[in-house]
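Dear support,

Our group has been running a series of protein-ligand predictions, and this particular one with iron/sulfur cluster is the one our PI (initials K.S.) wants archived with full inputs and outputs. We had some confusion internally about which version of the output was final, so please treat the block below as the authoritative record. The input we submitted was:
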Amino acid sequence: MQIAVDEDKCIGSGQCVLTAPHVFDQRDDDAIAVVLDEFPAEPDQPAARAAAAGCPVAAIALSGD
Ligand code: SF4
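Confirmed final output from the archive:
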């Protein structure tokens, strides 16, 4: 699994950080999401999928298995 955030779509709502704190963080200056772990290990993948599904603007893209 590979994760990417579209910074142009992200509105800084923070749900992804709450849902998958090992995978996402937010920039201090503008709250845009950053990916901490582009290739999360198996234990973090369900949370990463939930974060992608829960993003209000569909800014999180998952690729691969
Ligand atoms: S849930 Fe989506 S809009 Fe909210 S901070 Fe994460 S990537 Fe940005």
